[in-house]
Amino acid sequence: MAKRKVDTENRGFQTRWESEYMFTKVAGKPVCLLCGESVAVLKEYNLRRHYETKHADKNKNMDMEQRLQKAEELKRGLKSRQALFKKAKSQGQAAVKASFILAEEIAKSARPFTEGDFIKNCMIKVCDEVCPEKRQLFLNVSLSRNTIAERVDQLSINLKEQLVKKGKDFIAYSLAVGESTDISDIAQLSIFIRGVDSNLSVTEEFLALRPMHGTTTGHDLYEEVSRCVNEMELPWEKLVGLTTDGAPAMCGHRSGLVAKIREKMQEENATGELTAYHCIIHQEALCGKALKMEHVMSIITRTVNFIRAKGLNHRQFKAFLTELETEHGDLPYHTEVRWLSQGKVLQRCFELREEICLFLDSKGKDTTQLRDEMFLCEMAFLCDITSHLNAINLQLQGRDRVISDMYSTVKAFKTKLTLWETQMRKENLSHFPSCQTMKEKLSTSAFPSTQLADKIGMLAADFRRRFADFEAQKSRLELLGNPFAVDVESSPPNLQMELIDLQCNDALRAKYAAVGAAEFARFLPGTMPQLRIQAAQTLSMFGSTYLCEQLFSLMNLNKTSHRSRLTAEHLHSILRISSAQSLTPNIDELVEKMGHHQVSPSTSNK
Q1: Could you list the residue ranges forming a coiled coil in this record (predicted)?
Q2: What are phi and psi of 212, to 5 degrees?
Q3: Helices marked H in 170-293
Q4: Averaged over 531-553, what is the pLDDT?
């Protein structure tokens, strides 16, 4: 015979029991109004036995009306206590949530953990003026250094858990890897992941920052990357691409990171081929070296350093420009690491070339080179071509960039270079305004158009050489960029039938025109599985290590000479929070996990 289950007997609480036995119903259970004890099973016998055993003597002289009044008073008291408890619990949870919110803001703004005490002190002072009766609520918010550090770690763990959960749905993913050194001379390896799920939604997030205390060989890098992939529980066969900063330890054919990961994929019997890229932005910056115009830049750098290096010279130069009422009031510095600064320095020096010569003359410096017409023509050309290179560099930067769009940008620039070379040979300077200015001011010598056209030809050749690996993937990239223009016959056999169906579908063609290439992939129907997989793989690929470089900037903002003892774990947590894009910490979930813990009031007014 089956055992009886009390819960299935639908026993109801009867109102008369309140006055007869001094019981009420709280959260589905009978609770004694006199002593607060609860009875496990809702049966009249159990309630009566409890009352007669423990409370019968206290209320034996009461009539029914008095018992009713007594029961109502006790019920009101119970409700009051419950409300007070709920309020206290609510206030405690609000205080904990506030500490999480402020910890997140402190991490995002690269502030030290001790800023929590300063913020609390400010809050208390504001509270004293605006709402002094709420002072205790603000005091209950714990913002000590240790609390902020703990909250930051909890927020980071929550973000990682979300990423791991998302990673289980990835049908394709790629990695971007970069390496740099922090203020303590510790090599830091940054890893980002870009994954695509079955709905073709892209997730681009920070994966890890790994400190490298010893060597940074290809094997060392591989060990750290492999550990990250395994921690995420990502299958190696779904890894599509690897984009690096181009260092030998990354790209070495035998023992580099790329080679090691390819070996690992072969061991795991992965069917796909790993596509490895050297960062497009790095490549574009390196192409500028092909111009071989360091002699021009060295003269400019020496001139700028003479003016800026000494405080007196700098002050006098600014006063000199103010006296002449020039458009610009100063010269910027040029730093080799900051690629875009070269264009700004060149542009400013070209615009202030006459004023600079006058100032150097007043200081007794030789300005023969700076006044030489050939040098000025080369400086004007370098100014214009650097401006064009900076423009494409800015186009390639940013988050959530689709590699097919980046390829199209580079392809367009190569076409522009061909046009500029042809026009330069004909002395058509439409796209070179500084050169146009110099040509008009030349006194005797002719503008060196042939020599400068050769420079453009050298730049174009270097672009073709450096971006040859992207040309090898041309058909794959164009398939995502414009599937309606792809030649079906030259496409892989497994895609041909689906491509014909796609190109003959007017509704999908209209959708492509409306939403663009990057978004269109989501609208590919389930009847085209091969095209969807191909789109997912291409969408997952990084075109550059921009995110890694951006992370290193954040790292340098956080780990400074004043915070050089910041631990690797705390630095990792801070960077995960500050670099998060599509993920946000679930603070409500974190507060709930802390249960009924209530932050104790601070003993100080800080």
Answers
A1: 54-81
A2: -115, 95
A3: 218-231, 248-251, 257-267, 280-287
A4: 92
What does the angle CA 250 – CA 254 – CA 259 come to, to the nearest 5 degrees?
Answer: 55
What are the tokens at 410? 């580079």
Strand 239-244 with 170-181, pairing: parallel
Instruction: Report pLDDT digits (tens) over 278-317.
Output: 988 888 888 888 888 888 888 888 888 888 888 888 888 8
Spatial distance between the Cα atoms of 47 and 34, rounded to a whole number of angstroms: 12
Helix (H, G, I), strand (E, B) or coil at 195: strand
Cα→Cα distances 553→159, 337, 340, Å = 21, 12, 15
d(CA 161, CA 156): 9
Q: With contact defined as beta carbons under 8 Å apart, do 106 and 148 qualify?
A: yes
Q: What is the pLDDT of residues 344-364, one digit of tens each?
A: 888 888 888 888 898 888 888
Give tens-digit pLDDT for 234-266: 999 999 999 998 888 998 888 899 999 999 999
Query: CA 16, CA 22: separation in Å to the nearest integer?
Result: 9
Q: Can you give the pTM of this predicted structure?
A: 0.80
What average pLDDT score do residues 489-507 get? 92
Q: Residue 203 has which token pair?
A: 């997730």
Rounded distance, CA 423 to CA 416, Å?
10
**How many angstroms separate the CA atoms of 594 and 435, rounded?**
67
Of 71-75, 378-382, 582-586, minimum mean pLDDT range: 71-75
SS3 at position 445: coil
Spatial separation of the C-alpha atoms in residues 262 and 484, rounded to whole Å = 33
Q: What is 283-323 written as a DSSP string?
A: HHHHHGGGG--HHHHHHHHHHHHHHHHSHHHHHHHHHHHHH
441 pLDDT more than 50: yes
Distance of CA 383 to the CA centre of its chain: 33
Helix (H, G, I), strand (E, B) or coil at 329: coil
DSSP string, 469-535: HHHHTHHHHHHHH-GGGS-STTS-HHHHHHHHHHHT-HHHHHHHHHH-HHHHGGG--TT-HHHHHHH
Structural element, H or E, at residue 194: strand 187-197
Residue 203: its pLDDT value, please?
94
Q: Name residue 205's beta-bridge partners.
A: 193
Residue 606, pLDDT score: 34
Tokens of 201: 């939604």
- Of the candidates 313, 293, 312, the one whose C-alpha atom is nearest the C-alpha of residue 304 is 313
* d(C-alpha 486, C-alpha 111), whole Å: 51
Give the integer Cα–Cα distance in Å for 602 and 569.
27
| φ, ψ (nearest 5 deg) of residue 574 | -60, -45
Enter the tokens of residue 60. 């034996």
CA distance 306 to 344: 18
